[in-house]
Amino acid sequence: VIGTATALILNLFHDYKNQKNQLYVDMKYAEQQLQFILKKTADYLHCKELEGNVWEDLRVLEGYLSGAVERAYEYQDNTFHSHPDYYINYLEMRTRQCDTLHDLHYELKKIRQFPEQAGIVADYILYMQKYVTEHNLPERQMDKLQHLFEHMKEEPLPANKEDYESHVILYHILMDLEDFLIYKKRFIEALDDKQREIYWKDESKD
Q1: pLDDT tens digits for 175-199?
Q2: How many whole angstroms separate alpha carbon 130 and alpha carbon 136?
Q3: Which bin fits 121, alpha (ψ -120 to 50), beta or left (φ > 0)?
Q4: Is the pTM value of this prediction over 0.70?
Q5: What is the structure's pLDDT at 138?
Q6: In angstroms, rounded to a whole number, what is the distance separating the alpha carbons of residues 206 and 204?
Q7: SS3 assignment for 161-189
Q8: Nearest alpha-carbon partner for 146 in 113, 170, 177
Q9: Are the C-beta atoms of residues 68 and 30 closer than 8 Å to each other?
Q10: What is the pLDDT of residues 6-52, one digit of tens each?
């Protein structure tokens, strides 16, 4: 009986380890795909030819994240470890960011002709996308974004209607990017001291 019980307990802990490793894979995959989609977005604004369909990329990522969140809840239900909800909160945060990129691309498709500011927004996206990592604090990206908001406000409004509409859409795209960063900021602010100690030990390296 003791031997059987010991084997069952060891098997449970082994399964927990596999689940935890899978969640880590899920997190990294989400980060890489979000970076990839942001890169495509910047290329589109730079009027570069794109390979594949960004809408399909978003749908695939949404489906993957849905499964990842389910795996995170399963891990929470089965594990004895403290703070398993970290993975749930992280993956739900990435899901909300994915939804934000969906909104951003709906806006993007409305632009008929890219104004000069489109390149500036694209450059910011290229800057931002490399910071879509677990341990990044988004303050610097948010500060840079605020400067970009101010820059666009100070520029004279376009003379014709089409350019004006494009200018407004670009401003909305910046607001979507702000939401993208705010979701990460809120996730970090919700971490308690123990979670920071467990999961953010290497924070200073990012």
Answers
A1: 999 999 999 999 999 998 888 888 8
A2: 10
A3: alpha
A4: yes
A5: 96
A6: 6
A7: HHHHHHHHHHHHHHHHHHHHHHHHHHHHH
A8: 177
A9: yes
A10: 555 555 555 677 888 899 999 999 999 999 999 999 999 998 888 88
**Measured distance CA(69)–CA(74) in Å, rounded:** 9
- Of 180, 188, 82, 178, residue with least CA distance to 135: 188
Residue 26 phi, psi dihedral angles, 5° rounding: -60, -45
Higher pLDDT, 6 or 66: 66
Q: What is the pLDDT of residue 115?
A: 84
Contacts of 175 (CB under 8 A, 6+ apart): none
Torsion of CA 74, 80, 81, 82, to 10 degrees: 90
What 8-state DSSP symbol labels residue 138? T
Residues 74/64/198/16 CA torsion (nearest 10 deg): 40
Q: In degrees to the nearest 10, what's the CA dihedral of 179, 130, 65, 174?
A: 20
Let me know: does 16 contact 71? Beta carbons within 8 Å. Answer: no
Nearest to 89 by CA among 5, 168, 176, 199: 199
**What are the backbone dihedrals phi and psi of residue 184, each rounded to the nearest 5 degrees, phi first?**
-70, -40
Residue linked to tokens 């101010």: 150
Q: Is residue 73 a contact partner of residue 88, using CB atoms and an 8 Å limit?
A: yes
